[in-house]
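Holo model, zinc ion. Inputs:
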Amino acid sequence: MNGPVVQPLPGAGLVVRAGRLFAACEAAGSGELLALVARVAADGGDGEDLTRHAAGLLPGGELSCAVGGPVAGGGVAVFVCGLGVAEVDDWVRLTGPEPMRRVVAGRVGTMRLALPGAGTPHPLARLDAGVVAAAGLTVHYPETPQAPAPASHEPFQSVLLLPGHAPAPQPPPAEPAAATQPLVEGVDCKNGHFNDPAVRYCQQCGIAMLQVTHVTRLGPRPPLGVLLLDNGMTLRADADYVVGREPDRDPDVAAGRARPLRIADSHGGISRRHLRIRLSGWTVQVLDLGSANGTFVQEPGAQEAPPVPAGQPVTVRPGSKVIFGRRWLRYESHRNP
Ligand SMILES: [Zn+2]
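Output:
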């Protein structure tokens, strides 16, 4: 057997492992969810089945939890609500409070399901089966692929993680060094995670930031979230992107100061260099690069999408849609809007 290594994270809550399916949840009111994990596992379900049922069980985010399991092709499906946090390979981070469900396609190394205050696992701690008191768990998948789960054809949001504009069968290599990231002013949570001074909860462990003094320090900027393209492609918001039909022509792309995001355009509405996604401090901005048809930003919940003024960067709040031609991308982040 070459199954995943599962380690419980110390802290308050309950975690369950039923075969290859997992959940971490607050103890109060967790009975139905714990039973659900066991039932889906007994039925031979995969992570997709589990997260779909969990979303049906908790339509309003009634219970703080994080749920996950593998899906066909080597990816995982995760679901969170309340204060639950799900992280996959440091690329994807899903948080509540609204129920959120996500499939991360491709090879996955580590999945972490946690509640606020989850600690570091003891190196010898293992969870092979059952329910234990813990604030979360980490699942380390072995290099050799598991037996694939049965294929499913139900349509649902599937996110392919890509380092650039070209499809990549493997996750991209780790960042070469934190030192290559721009330095920004931030604060440390109680557990030493570097955060935006404006956030209320640590973006890595979820602990309330109220407990630390807000003394800022300079540190390497962590990813600010993801850019979700209309075709399901996801890019990590950890660098500037030049978006357009021929973004490689941009001098900053050539110089390595921005990444190219090439957009196919059959309707003629997208310029060669259309817009730039720019990271500034802890915010994501959009800058129209003098495109012929303009760039528009639709804030979450808004009916209208006003144009980005020429030459003026506009800050993009999480959940906002950036529209260009007939294409769009959305900035998604766990950051508080
Ligand atoms: Zn933290």
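Confidence is low (pLDDT under 50) at residues 145-179. The CA atoms of residues 245 and 262 lie 5 Å apart.
Archived with the compound record.
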